Amino acid sequence: MKEKIQELAHQYHIDTVSLRRHLHMHPELSFEEVNTGKFVSAQLSAMGIEHQHGVADNGVVALIKGKNPRKRVVALRADMDALPILEANNVPYKSQNEGVMHACGHDVHTSSLLGTVRILHALRDQFEGTVKCLFQPGEERLPGGASLMIQAGALENPRPASIFGQHVHPPLRAGMIGLKPGIYMASADELYVTVKGRGGHGAMPQECVDPVVVTAQIIVALQQVVSRYADPAIPSVLTFGKINSTGGATNIIPNEVKLLGTFRTMNEKWRMEAHKRMKKMAESIAKGYGAACDFHIMKGYPVLFNHEELTLRTKKWAIEFLGKDKVVDLPLRMTAEDFAYYSQVMPACFYRLGTGNPERGITSPIHTDTFDIDEAALETGMGMMAWLAMKELSI
Prior knowledge:
The chain is of the alpha/beta class. It folds into two domains: 2-186 and 302-393, Zn peptidases (Aminopeptidase, 3-Layer(aba) Sandwich), CATH 3.40.630; 189-298, Alpha-Beta Plaits. The chain is built from ten helices and 16 strands. The chain has helices at 2-11, 13-25, 34-47, 106-122, 145-151, 211-229, 268-288, 308-322, 340-345, 376-393; strands spanning 50-55, 59-65, 73-79, 130-136, 162-173, 177-179, 182-185, 189-196, 200-201, 236-246, 252-253, 256-265, 292-298, 304-306, 327-329, 348-356. It has an eight-stranded mixed beta sheet, sandwiched between helices. Helix 1 (2-11) packs antiparallel against helix 10 (376-393). The model has no long low-confidence stretch (mean pLDDT 97).
């Protein structure tokens, strides 16, 4: 069966490249994937695949039924949204939606899963069970399309026993994959802080409550939440990326300052404790200076946990499919992914698909305006997912 999947992945590669290039040329932002969802639906209809369009607005759920379709169900997931980035690549398939770009490879994920669907449909008389394919909107924006797909019942009727997802990874060469069992990616929460003081002339600070100074104290003090309250064995990152004031000038103390940041960690219990400590510390510091602090935490994606047994099976099967030299172990990542929501409700495995090619200069990281892939990765991506689905159905 391995050779047949590899043969079909090779046979369908050129068509899948065309799908990827179409998607890359017509990117849509999170929760705006109207045409992308229609495109995916049209491709599935052309293949004669049973599917539902409009799940969580723009999402699509497809079913590929083999023999005895109720025996076992496995899910595969791809995300469809793009980023608000102006593409700098000079390629024939450059984004035609100015200021919007598939800079995180979701065009790769979607086209690869369409290729996987095609392979599985061609081999449907060769396996028992059902493969449920989720084409998901809104991975890049809270509350995360994965959470909305789950709420909309995408994992029910039929309910999968497990789920796989893949994500482009430029540091790995095309043709390779990487994975890590257990805790893999961090939770990610957004922090919105407003420090309110009393503005006035910069030459007379004694008549003011300077929110700039108070904010500076808060920024420095909150780093101690990570350095002095967190267990050193639990990775934690606190970053403030934006600060601005309402009014203010070289000689004007403003009335308030706004501060935006992110908190990430690998432990859900500590995550909740850190929220309380940060809020209490910031409010106490502001009060001590005679100011006020509105500390709002927008809870984001949870910790992504790769089910250990499933991920070890995946590694074994990947070596069988690609060869031992094409499968590598990965370290923890402090980035976040809404695939984590799936990992909370069923055994899940989220792995990385190599897309780099240093000899051709294809090395740009994701979320940059020069990101691109070696399109040979699409053959690996769709073949690998088809192989994993069939192996997982057979256990």
